[in-house]
Amino acid sequence: MIRTIYAIARNTLSETIRQNGFGVLLAFSCFIIAMSPTFAMFTFVDSVKLVQDMGLATILLSGLFLGVLSSTNVINNEIEGRTALTVLSKPVNRTSFVIGKFLGIAASVSIATYIQTVVLLLTYRIGVKDSASVELDYGALAGIIIATIVSIIIAIYYNYFLNRPFMTIAIWSVFFCISGAGLFFILFNKEYKFAPFTDGLNYNLMMASSLTLMAILILVSISVMASTTLKMVANFVVSFLAFFGGLLSEYIINQYAEKFIAVKYIFKAVPDFQIFWITESLTVGKTIPFIYVEHCLIYTIYYIGAILLFGILFFSRKEVTG
Known about the structure:
Blueprint: H1 2-18, H2 20-40, H3 47-80, H4 83-88, H5 94-126, H6 138-161, H7 166-187, H8 203-227, H9 232-256, H10 261-268, H11 279-284, H12 290-317
Helix pairs in contact: 1-5, 2-3, 2-5, 3-5, 3-8, 3-9, 5-6, 5-7, 5-8, 5-12, 6-7, 8-9, 8-12, 9-10
């Protein structure tokens, strides 16, 4: 069963990052993150806070869109197009199918989140020109630009001469090139002297991004569950309702639980996304304890397990015929 799940997950990962929509959405979100200091220059709020909040919000929303888009394309379209029948006619049970699909989509979204996080860290290192005294780190900006150009050149070469999928090669090239750029700026400070983990690594921002990824993975599990029975538009509706319900669950419970007892139980079942959104800690410079991240990870694993169980139950009742 493990080999079957691994094979499905690997194939799903390949299918997902091959999609043009996946690459375009990832590129657009990275562009928004990289341009956030420009937007911050024209506001009266704390520029650094705006860059952090805007970057994390972009990662979260893009993760939601990527999850719904990917799950619809690799699950619902296969079911509706009868492609899934070919897979399920082999010695592959529906439990392995759902778990493998989730792991493949989760891996692709995690890769996208990692790339966006490195771009956000480099953007944070560049700084915001909100006053004449602020000196920008143009080297970090050059790192993002060079990583992007090199990745495009590699993708064009492999696509034109070796007939490999452009988007797949582009995403993997960006993954490794942006990692190289990130590693360089972790090892060298703003004076470009060898000083590991001084100017290039923002621990709190990394922890905040990790928590954002956990929220995204819960949304992916909800989208996978919905994709076993619903098409893309309905999937978006369910995922967005879960997303906004999770953000507002604590407020709604506090306001209406005493008047309507059902509200308390309904919104207790909705994931609490507020525990993953800790931008206030970033603003005041408070260190995010690792134990908190660990507790959120346990919460994420349990919730994903429960959602996938429902997805397997729904899919087991769905008739897939040729």
